[in-house]
Amino acid sequence: MTFVFIHGAGCTDAVFHEQRSAFPNGVFIRLPGRSTHGDTTSIGAFADAVELQLQTHAIEDALLVGSSMGGAIALELAVRGASRIRGCVLLGSGAKMRVGPAMFTQMETDFPAAIETLVPIFFATPTNELMQTMREQLMDVGQSQTIADFRACDAFDRTANLAEIALPMLAITGADDRLMPPKFAQMIAERVPGARAEILPGLGHLPMLEAPGQINSLLQAFEAQIANLG
Predict the structure, then answer these.
(1) In Å, how far are 29, 69, 110, 113, 122 from 144, measured between CA atoms?
(2) pTM for this one?
(3) What is the CATH number of the domain that holds 155?
(4) Tens-place pLDDT, residues 154-175
């Protein structure tokens, strides 16, 4: 099986830098809109881009790992019943991802200030290093694409389709995630047949950065679980 990592809104594949050494055979997707071409108007369009990448890399047994918006993309592919996927892990994500109007207003009128609003919210325990990592990614992605990402998230809603998913699924959320609180992971566990949720104390919206060892261990255990299913 091949881990395929899908980053979130306003991010690049660099958000998974702590996973690259743990999963050297993993594929780290860089979504359209950040030095790559393609439709960036919806979660469905991003999912199309990921499917194309699976074909390009000839991956037939993908374990999708999606952070935030990346989790929504993984869910979209799971609902579609994409044949190349063996399972999905959602990190700080869910089937519905509303964004408050105030955030759009600030991103449109004062993007640097919006970055300073967002960056501390990403973490349960913000450090200067973690916050600078996310500042750099948001600035690299830029105002226009970050807004497009957040609009795609705001329009996404697959809550009515969760019972249709027939793939192993693990929803991981930090107990202190202020953007996608644990109730979103719990919804996945309640509505997707066989899915489970892991609520991690002391972590926020980007647990793979705050606690990479813990997340990597959960991913490895999930892979082993699926392998045992045959």
Answers:
(1) 20, 16, 12, 15, 20
(2) 0.96
(3) 3.40.50.1820
(4) 999 999 999 999 999 999 999 9
